[in-house]
């Protein structure tokens, strides 16, 4: 497994979670029958006069919208893909915008959380051709920021986002808004970097391991060279998934509370929502 250093900008943009979710939707686009079945009723209910099946079958350019709801901010990634027949889709363009603070900051004012989501959706409307809106999947995945909230507060925030998504012109499913668990976040990071380096397309190319340092948690994920490594791993530290006709067995573990911001608060003796008592230390760290 090769080591790889990523720029701070790459992590700051939250692309780890975002592109990985798009990968799940690649399957959705590759299977044209599933796409037609999922959206045909919507097209008919809106009186769409286009031949939906023909459009889907010939579609070589498509988009995906991913909201990354992290502990330090909410980001939208608008991905544009091109695909040749019988080939893996290729990412050709990304539009990115971020707003602060994160969704978790609105735990006690849920209505206010919707303002930023609506603002970011306007960016998507400007970037994506109108005729493709109803075929463009829209997803939000929240990470450690919401995992650290009490369940009821986190759910209210998710419900608000889902309400806004369902009122949008984009394609949404019942599970379009959710909180990623730590293992899935690690898998997402691993898929992202190995998709970008081409390791998923070339079995002869070594995969890249990932250490994802977020604001509220840290994930470590890699593909072991031998089965013995997996067998020697602690319970709950391994996982497997199937993608593109291949099964991947990974080591993946998330350390909740050991993200950059959470660890900093713990070191300084602070708590969420309260200023550090030691001003000298605060100035030193910030």
TrEMBL record:
PROSITE patterns: GDA1_CD39_NTPASE (PS01238). The keyword DNA repair does not apply. Its EC number is 3.6.1.6. GO terms for cellular component: Golgi apparatus. InterPro entries: GDA1_CD39_NTPase. Pfam families: GDA1_CD39. Gene3D superfamilies: 3.30.420.40, Exopolyphosphatase. Domain 2. GO terms for molecular function: ATP binding; nucleoside diphosphate phosphatase activity. Keywords: ATP-binding, Hydrolase, Nucleotide-binding. Belongs to the GDA1/CD39 NTPase family. This is nucleoside diphosphate phosphatase.
